[in-house]
Specification:
single chain, Rossmann fold, four-stranded antiparallel sheet, binds adenosine-5'-triphosphate, binds magnesium ion
Length: 330
């Protein structure tokens, strides 16, 4: 039977703040009961506004963070319970590309050392000439000249550094790539180059990819499926085209409406969006989207909607399949 390559099961994450002032103490609930599967060879986009928990979910998957509750499975095994060889195998196969290429690479070491580091750590290729050769091939595979290996990060442009970051992530020949906003710090033409590169790598190597972004235009171009996060809750999961054709959750609709329009007549007509609204404290006893929702009813104030599955897509909204009438809380 077809099994997911990786899976989040009821994953929750709470960050505790221990400030020196009493007001600095507290907790942030970054993820709530996340259930999500990643299928082999797919690109799943994770979208949502700033602070919705996207990077946290990525870091839980690459093992940098341990979830407060729930588990992350890789090939059916709990990542948190892996030891020794199995743990190394998972670390080798799950690699991450970061948003900020400047800080992702150590500025004090050459590109050569940056690329040799994962090769040495996982004993890949023959020490010496073999590893240097592989480092150069990796650079070529991301469209950079072999000689880049002798340069320092400060001598490269943002787009070139991002390619080195991708080469470094690919060095271990991973199965799963987590790309955390890999193009958002780059200009549009370099963005397009990097996206084409990721697309061809995915085709060639049949990479599975968790692609984190808040750019709904980029997401449509690159992903097979989309998972929408709002304040650490999954709101909706659907095939990309289905989601763009017919968003079921009102928050998904807000995200799609926030894509800038090329039609001058539409400018300035952006609907009210939670992205503009003041923050309202979250509660487990009501829909997290309640304060901004044009469809909310009394039900939404009394309990949290479940993430329910219908026709191969999942949505957390009591009114997902209602007609488009707008209601207000009585
Ligand atoms: N190490 C940490 N300690 C405390 N709180 C944290 C930590 N990391 C993340 N958070 C909090 O968890 C929440 C989710 O953060 P996260 O970085 O996952 O958001 P995001 O969706 O990636 O946002 P962005 O689009 O801005 O990158 C935020 O409220 C953030 O402040
Ligand atoms: Mg982030």
């Amino acid at each position: 039977m077809n099994a997911p390559l990786a899976e989040f099961r009821n994953v929750g994450m709470i960050f505790h703040r221990n400030g020196i002032f009493p007001s600095g103490r507290g907790e942030t609930r970054a993820l709530h009961g996340v259930d999500l599967a990643l299928w082999r060879g797919e690109t799943l986009a994770l979208v949502g506004e700033s602070g919705s928990g996207k990077s946290t979910l990525g870091r839980v998957l690459n093992g940098a963070l341990r979830p407060t509750c729930g588990s992350v499975l890789y090939k059916g095994r709990d990542l948190g319970g892996l030891r020794g060889r199995e743990k190394r195998d998972a670390m080798r196969n799950i690699r991450m590309v970061f948003q900020d290429s400047a800080s992702a690479l150590n500025p004090n070491i050459s590109i050569r050392e940056s690329l040799l580091e994962p090769l040495e750590a996982f004993g890949i290729a023959e020490a010496g000439r073999g590893r240097l050769d592989l480092a150069m091939k990796l650079l070529e595979s991301v469209g950079l000249p072999r000689e880049t290996v002798f340069r320092h990060p400060r001598e490269l442009s943002g787009g070139q550094r991002q390619r080195v970051g991708i080469a470094r992530a690919l060095a271990t020949d991973p199965e799963l790539l987590i790309c955390d906003e890999p193009v958002s710090s780059l200009d549009v033409s370099i963005q397009a180059q990097i996206l084409r590169l990721l697309h061809s790598l995915r085709e060639e190597k049949r990479l599975t990819c968790l692609f984190i972004s808040h750019d709904m235009g980029v997401v449509r171009a690159i992903s097979d499926r989309v998972c929408v996060l709002y304040r650490g809750h999954i709101c909706e999961v659907a095939d990309t085209e289905a989601l763009y054709d017919r968003p079921l959750h009102p928050y998904t609709r807000c995200l799609l409406d926030s894509i800038p329009s090329m039609n001058p007549g539409d400018r300035g007509k952006r609907p009210v969006s939670p992205l503009d609204a003041p923050s309202v404290p979250a509660s487990e006893e009501r829909c997290p989207f309640l304060p901004y929702c044009p469809r909310s009813t009394r039900d939404c104030t009394l309990r949290m909607p479940e993430l329910t599955e219908l026709d191969g897509r999942k949505v957390r909204c009591f009114h997902a399949y209602d007609s488009d009438t707008v209601r207000t809380v009585p």
